[in-house]
Amino acid sequence: MQSHQAGDLEAAERQYREVLELRAAQPDAMHYLGVLCHQRARSDEGVRLIEAALKITPRHPDAHNNLGNIHKECGRLAAAERCYRKALECGAQHYNAQNNLAVVLEAQERVEEAFEAYAKLLRQAPKFAQGYYLMGRFLRNYAQSKEHVEQSVQCFRKAYELDRHNLRALESLGMSLYTLNRIKEAVQVYRDWLAREPDHPVPRHMLAACGGAQAPLRAADDYVRQVFDAFADSFDEQLLKNLGYRAPQVLADALGGMLTGAAGAFEVLDAGCGTGLCEPLLRPYARRLVGVDLSGGMIEKARLRGGYDELEVAELTGYLQAHPAAYDIVFSADTLEYFGELREVLEAAHAALRPGGWLAFTVEVAQGEDDRVDLAPSGRYQHTHCHVERALSSAGYSQVSIGTDTLRKEGGQPVAGWVVLAQRTAQG
């Protein structure tokens, strides 16, 4: 267990198996080996091991909870719910299981039940910072009135009060304040944070996003890395909870209508792959599927999915520039919104494409007829149609399609995006 907790999974697996050689069916060894197998992208084996352990110790709430976590992370929400309810049956005060139950209820769009589950969690564990953070997100995502957003502010403040390392709570606090048009308060949150940690990239970027400083040309690498490394463990969970998240599917559907040729024939780059949510959408097209992301934490999660032929931690523009004419498809869902001016990264993608290859990406919509980029209070950039069109033209693309669709919901409201397809000419 010490090896496991230290992240030495290879040593931990060997040691768990040594325990099981000495004592076959030792339930704790099977349970924790099952968790480890899931971490090493062998989720089915992990399920079998934990289920075997539960036949020996059927009232072990931690084992039921961890089995639920595997099902949840594999997208089997109903199975996960059953496991969490069993964990609570065995240990009514198991607040991690209560937290996870609330998450999967929300992911199944059972909003009233999810709210009751979050409320019960806070009654059970009044000092659990993550519970307040999740309740704050729930209140803002499903806000029916201004009062719900105001309650989210209270939750985010409490979450940060209880856990000063919970940077997501501070970011979310600023966003809720901005949503309430309490812009000066949002700016002050980031100024106070920056005063305490003057070198921290998150408040530096978010202060600019809230209008308290000049916007950078693009999100700094240290900001993106910090945010997504910290977000890696809960990224898929948050997207499951954010029920309107649909950018990968929308973009994949648009791209599929343009492609000709045999299935599985293309060299594909998932540019800004995150935890690998796009992998099952891209794999049918790919002879070889590569993922690149600036966040090492995200790449490790993508590695667990086991569907990529290669994964690399790298800054996207530099990676594209270093791989000329390497790909038939460059696919980038919800990544280029961390870039302001798009020309440089689109030129790099053009160079990385083979003749006739396709670039597919989404960015958020900025309203207006002018060539403009705005840094929104979310920390993401928004681009006008004119800017996207001009950047593509300058980068040398030929056939271009720019459509609109809803990419996700934020604060309970739809976020509009440009769904962009652009082809490198077949001649070069």
Question: What is the compact description of this entry?
Answer:
This protein is an alpha/beta fold.
CATH superfamily of the domain at 236-423: Vaccinia Virus protein VP39
Structural class: alpha/beta
What is the class of the domain at 236-423 in the CATH system? Alpha Beta
Total helix count? 21
CATH topology-level fold name of the domain at 236-423:
Rossmann fold
- Overall geometry comes to globular
SS strand fraction: 15-25%
Task: Give a count of the beta strands, DSSP E runs of length 2 or more.
Answer: 9
User: What's the helix-strand series?
Assistant: HHHHHHHHHHHHHHHHEHEHEHEHEEEHEE
What portion of residues is helical?
40-55%
Biggest sheet overview: 9 strands, mixed
Q: Whole-number average pLDDT?
A: 93
Oligomer: single chain
Radius of gyration: 23 Å
N-to-C span = 55 Å
Model regions low in confidence, pLDDT < 50 over at least 5 residues: none
CATH architecture heading of the domain at 236-423: 3-Layer(aba) Sandwich
